[in-house]
Specification:
heterotrimer; A mainly alpha (275); B alpha/beta (585); C mainly alpha (259); A: 275 residues; 66% helix; flat; B: 585 residues; alpha/beta; Rossmann fold; 2 domains
């Protein structure tokens, strides 16, 4: 199924990393960015993500520009407008009111936080794109099984589920057409969509369940999980470079936070700038 | 001791009213190829699951009796040892793989055996070579055709080096060209691995029967009732097979009729080659009529064509290639037309234009003479019914009754009328006993009947069917075609997209071949098969009886040849062949 | 599955959750008593940390249980999780439309929008209701999160953390009920658990600059939404599916027929 993101097959330093450790490194960056409330720190993380995506992983811009723009524009609208009106300052800190009418007021600091949150989303989306577009889904799951001790039957289940994704899209299209011929119109109202969801869900899920059962029997017929041990045709390795990447991510996050603090731009992480 | 020794095997699924298999005993040697026949629900698949040791661990069922493979009772073996003996190929090409690429999929079965990596590489190469997929080793599984997927499933089984292969309707979901190819690879495999015992479940036997050593027949009750060499079983037990709805190879069925008509045939031929040999010299050669018999074309009301496409072009996306290219087609009222052609030629795309699922520009598609773009979806679906390949896709309600009433309710017909029409449909489609059942819980044949019935509920006079006989056993397919025949006789126009050559040969009044988005042929089924160049580009397989007729040079005055048993019999008896479909069996 | 097996499963999961949950609070307590606090956390952060600890502990506790599943149970969980994952993904696109509600009703729009949040717990309710195995809620929710993030979502891989918290807290409810009861009460409580998990994570990631009354309203909205869109819908859909006969070989199917 074509999502907004897809794996972009290529050979680069980032592509070759072990998926589990790559995920850990990227998650570390993501968590680090969520603890900052100024606009500059997330901006730095965003630029770091973009650098890794474009320069280190050599993923072409057309591969990621669409989701980036879509989410950013919509996210910005929401975060900035909401925080402009309903920002909560830290205790004892004054707020700058730009405009006030009755109980409604627009707060400068809120707008600032809104921008910060938008940049935070930008950074998170970029880092996620970095992971998804440089990681082969099969390697990802195999690595979870081999390195992260993920239950292997469930892991192979995820591969089955992933393999089925395009099929559900086709099935859904057929079901829609079939129901339209039955005279079931699609109404654009919320209630109409709700009814459709239910009407489509049963045939789609029934088909998914049947196919799962068949696949499970087919897998068992090949002795899936029959032996206490199993070998792997695709061995997903952990090399020193993978640990280096994880360490690099943690160091980069620390460096950005420390640097921003030195520059006096950091908010969050216990740092409260001078009023 | 025989390699496979099954003793008094009885299997019962939980909550099932009767056992799936009852007291089945048989033996098979290494290298034997067995054909397992039986009506649906006779326990054929269950037998495979038992041999592979999947019952009761993976599939819950109670099992009595013993299964010995290679002298060992499989009940005493571990799951790993049991499954190592038997490789299974299942019916559904979409639901037997778990990995994304071809080599990973073959490797999966080897990883489970904990083989070292180096050995896996060699085994993958070897097994893919055996099924002709070595070039596809790094391909994604979802890019393979249905036929290639089934061959991959075969490779996955072979890589594990089982002593027994169980093939459970491996070609039921394939088109005739892919089926033929699968059997060719299987024949090659048999020659290369003469030690492997093969047990195969199949319904369409014409291209398969030559490699079968022994036939076993399971009854409705799951009992093993017949076992023996194919010619012998077919020769002496024709009535039993007929009764169970088992279809013989066509030339065998013809030979039975010929013998009954007094021709001196000592043994029944199974293949076209054997039939040619057996009939040589004894086939009476009367003069042939100038034209093949015409099929009754239903009650034609005259008037504008039921469906018409005029110079229709279509592509799914602006940057995609054209699926329909300037295509023109007329379906007259009262026609029983078969739409044939290779996969991806545009048959279904064309049909979806007739029911407003795909929207043509104005002046391209006409329904009963009216431009379809001027009609509402409700108007169109009141005239045209469309039966999808998988009946379940069309179900919207929780009971059979409500399902039939659905289209009427949507159209706000009065409840009394709905009740009356629903009752009538239930009765005429033999669904009255199941009216309160959930449509998904019906049998395959019942689901198919229900899906056709729902498409006639508001009085549609035109019925389009997408692969009506695909993936079904012959009994179900036959019952459905008989029903369509009745509807057609009552004046319903029928357009069937199909790969089933038997449907074309036995039922269709006319045939249309679509190749590469264009109509390449429109005419009688006889003329279709006589056009050899077209048969090749449209990836058709002429019916065996047609092939046999060509070998003997049996031709009508117009150069076409007989397709069905009835035509053959009529020719041989010198009487003019009656119209209508020939019944096989 | 025997009663003893079930009891051991729920015990392992609850102990896992409790140990890591307490550990998280202890770490927080020490961290926040530093002379110069390097964290500016408040008590809500402590709750969040504890919840994540519980979820992680549940994950560790479940993993041993999940290893014991049959192939059929594993594949069914993953495939249903995957199909629901597509729904999660589509819901994420629909969610962007709701940004306008949120922007249109300043502040309280957050709570109004969250009335639609509950669908994201569907996997954590429906799959355990069908499969009835320790670890099913967490596993299914995680698969849904993985699939939807692979398809590309605005929250990126942070949905993996959300999935862990939502599935983990729902799993706690099923474990507390001993994996024996799958009645309305359990399903509703599990939905509420998932809602709480989602709220805790989202608060930490996106909303901790908002006024407290709005954040509390959001939590209430999520409870309501979870009850309808995952609790009620999950049960209704599963029962509709069971009526078709395709679930006859699952725990739900067997429970229905009484076999």
């Amino acid at each position: 199924m074509e999502g907004l993101l897809n794996y972009y097959a290529a050979d680069s330093f980032i592509h070759r990393l072990n998926p589990t450790l790559k995920l850990a490194g990227i998650m570390a960056l993501m968590v680090a960015v969520t603890m900052a409330f100024d606009p500059w720190t997330p901006l730095a993380f965003f630029l770091l993500g973009l650098f890794m995506l474009k320069v280190l992983a050599r993923v072409p811009v057309r591969q990621f520009i669409r989701p980036l723009l879509l989410f950013v524009v919509l996210g910005a609208l929401g975060f900035i407008s909401a925080n402009a009106f309903f920002y909560t300052p830290l205790p004892g800190r004054p707020v700058t009111i730009l405009w006030q009418a009755g109980g409604v007021r627009i707060i400068l600091e809120g707008i600032r936080v809104g921008i910060s949150l938008t940049l935070r989303m930008l950074a998170i989306v970029t880092l996620s794109i970095l992971f998804v577009s440089t990681t082969d889904p099969t390697d990802f799951v195999l690595s979870l099984i081999q390195q992260a001790r993920f239950p292997f039957r469930l892991g192979y289940g995820i591969l089955v589920a992933y393999r089925f994704l395009p099929l559900w899209r086709t099935e859904l299209e057929i079901i829609r057409a079939a129901h339209r011929i039955r005279g079931a119109g699609e109404r654009p109202t919320l209630r109409g969509r709700w009814e459709q969801l239910q009407r489509y869900a049963v045939p789609l899920l029934a088909s998914a369940i049947r196919k799962s059962e068949r696949v499970a029997i087919a897998m068992d017929s090949k002795a899936f999980g029959a032996l206490p041990q199993r070998t792997y045709y695709r061995d997903v390795h952990v090399r020193p470079m993978d640990w280096a990447f994880l360490a690099g991510c943690v160091l980069a996050a620390a460096a950005i936070v420390w640097g921003m603090a030195q520059l006096g731009l950091l908010e969050g992480y216990g740092v409260v700038p001078e009023a | 001791m025989a390699w496979i020794d099954v003793r008094h095997l009885t299997v019962r699924y939980p909550r099932a009213p009767r056992p799936a298999l009852q007291d089945v005993s048989f033996q098979a040697e290494r290298g034997e190829t067995l054909l397992l026949l039986g009506p649906s629900g006779s326990g054929k698949s269950t037998l495979g699951l038992c041999l592979a040791g999947l019952i009761p661990d993976s599939v819950p069922a109670a099992m009595q009796g013993e299964v010995f493979i290679g002298g060992q009772n499989i009940a005493n073996l571990s799951v790993g040892q049991r499954t190592a003996q038997v490789g299974i190929v299942f019916q559904d090409p979409e639901a037997q793989f778990c990995m994304l690429t071809v080599e990973d999929e073959v490797a999966f079965g080897l990883e489970n055996m904990a083989l070292p990596r180096e050995e896996m590489g060699a085994r993958i190469a070897e097994s893919l070579r055996l099924v002709g997929l070595e070039e596809r080793r790094r391909e994604r599984v979802d890019r393979l055709s249905g036929g290639q997927k089934q061959r991959l499933a075969l490779a996955c089984a072979l890589a594990r080096r089982p002593s027994i292969l169980f093939l459970d309707e491996p070609t039921a979901n394939l088109d005739p060209a892919a089926r033929f190819e699968f059997f060719q690879w299987l024949a090659r495999l048999r020659a290369e691995q003469p030690e492997t015992t093969i047990i195969i479940v199949e319904h369409i036997l014409d291209d398969l029967i030559a490699m079968i050593d022994r036939v076993m027949l399971l009854s409705h009750e799951g009992r093993l009732v017949l076992s023996g060499a194919p010619a012998q079983v077919f020769q002496t037990n024709g009535e039993v097979l007929d009764e169970m709805g088992i279809w013989l190879p066509q030339v065998t069925a013809l030979a039975r009729k010929l013998r009954a008509a007094g021709l001196p045939l000592d043994h029944l031929p199974l293949t076209v080659d054997e039939a040619e040999e057996a009939l040589a010299g004894i086939l009476p050669r009367g003069p042939l009529p100038a034209e093949p018999p015409r099929r009754v074309q239903g009650v034609s009301a005259g008037g504008p064509p039921a469906l018409e496409a005029r110079r229709l072009s279509f592509r799914y996306r602006a940057d995609a290639p054209e699926v329909l290219r300037d295509l023109s087609l007329t379906v007259p009222q009262g026609a029983f037309m078969a739409l044939v052609g290779p996969n991806g030629a545009g048959k279904t795309t064309l049909a979806l234009h007739f029911v407003d699922i795909l929207r043509p520009p104005a002046g391209r598609v006409f329904l009963l003479g009216r431009d379809i773009t001027e009609l509402t979806t409700a108007d169109i679906t009141a005239q045209v019914g469309f039966v999808f390949q998988n009946p379940e896709h069309q179900f919207v309600e929780r009971t059979v009754e409500a399902e039939l009433a659905y289209s009427l309710r949507v159209r706000r017909r009065p409840e009394s009328e709905i009740a009356q029409l629903t009752d009538a449909l239930l009765a005429s489609f033999g669904l009255t006993p199941y009216r309160k059942m959930n449509p998904f819980a019906l049998s395959q044949g019942q689901k198919r009947r229900l899906s056709v019935a729902t498409m006639l509920a508001v009085g549609q006079r035109i019925l389009i069917l997408d692969e009506p006989t695909f993936g079904q056993d012959r009994n179900t397919a036959h019952a459905l075609m008989e029903r369509l025949q009745t509807l057609h006789a009552a004046g319903v126009t029928i357009l069937a997209i199909t790969h089933d050559m038997q449907l074309v040969a036995d039922y269709a009044g006319s045939a249309v071949a679509v190749v590469d988005g264009q109509v390449r042929f429109q005419g009688t089924p006889h003329a279709l098969f006589a056009n050899e160049e077209l048969v090749a580009v449209a990836e058709l397989r002429p019916p065996p009886l047609y092939q046999l007729a060509r070998r003997f040079g049996l031709r009508y005055g117009d150069g076409t040849s007989p397709l069905s048993i009835r035509e053959w019999m009529a020719l041989l008896q010198g009487a003019p062949a009656a119209g209508g479909p020939a019944k096989r069996g | 599955m025997t009663g003893e097996r079930r009891a051991r499963g729920s015990l392992a999961i609850l102990i896992g959750g409790a140990v890591l949950g307490i550990a998280a609070v202890v770490v927080y307590w020490f961290a926040s008593h530093e002379e110069e606090a390097w964290v500016s956390w408040n008590s809500l952060h402590a709750v969040m940390l504890a919840a994540m600890g519980v979820a992680a502990g549940v994950a560790i506790g479940s993993s041993a249980e999940v290893r014991r599943w049959t192939t059929w149970e594993s594949i069914l969980t993953a495939v249903l999780g995957g199909v629901i994952g597509i729904l999660f993904w589509l819901w994420g696109l629909f969610w962007e439309l709701l940004e306008f509600i949120k922007a249109g009703i300043p502040g309280y729009g957050y709570a109004v929008r969250d009335l639609f949040y509950g669908l994201w717990f569907l996997a954590a309710i429906m799959v355990p209701y069908i499969v009835r195995r320790p670890g099913a809620a967490l596993s299914a929710e995680m698969v849904g999160a993985i699939i939807s993030s692979l398809l590309g979502q605005q929250w990126g891989l942070t949905v993996l953390i959300s999935g862990l918290a939502q599935g983990g807290l729902a799993e706690v409810v099923f474990a507390l009920r001993g994996y024996k009861h799958y009645d309305w009460l359990t399903l509703m409580a599990a939905s509420a658990g998932a809602a709480l998990g989602s709220w805790i994570v989202d608060y930490a990631f996106w909303y901790n600059t908002l006024r407290v009354d709005i954040v509390i309203l959001m939590l209430i909205a999520r409870f309501i939404s979870a009850a309808v869109l995952s609790g009620w819908l999950g049960k209704a859909l599963s029962d509709a599916l069971a009526a078709t006969g395709v679930l006859d070989n699952t725990a739900l199917g067997r429970a229905r027929i009484g076999g």
